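Your task:
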Amino acid sequence: MTKHNSNLTEGLEHGDLKRLIHNELHIDEFKSKLGDDADVVVLSFKIAGRQPAEDLVAFIEKGYSWVIDADVSSGEMDDGDYIVFVELDRDSECSQHIFDLLGDIGNLTDHELSAWRVRYYKEHKETSLSLENLKSLIPDSPEAYNKKYGQEPIDDLKTAAGLPVDTRAPKNDFTESLRTAAGIR
């Protein structure tokens, strides 16, 4: 009889990640590995332990055709947790995809959707999870992202030509704090 070497891999089941995933989702806090920030939405979660983080990555990569990439941070954070990153296209369905993903993760963690807190990095505020909140927070196209957070193409041309750039920065908490610190109003 020949002995076969094989790895037994089991899928995650209901409650397998209970108390391991923090119920806080950060969006666009990190840069994409695989594309431009205007094209790719980057999700990040904290999770206790490297193996549960790797299990979650495998679950996400195998379960969602719209996921571009999922990965675990290379090292642990000061508190011993790891970060799981998920990248997806910035398109009209990205908010729905994120909402569905968190619903499925809720089955692994027993987190109710209403327990999730969402922080969109560029907005500097935390909000409760709802599809409506995701749609209002996340630019749903590269054009919408660039309009809200990126330089206008004309600004790139002016910079390249050595001309002064006179476009004002978007108004948000961060830029307002910079204006206040600089004494500009």
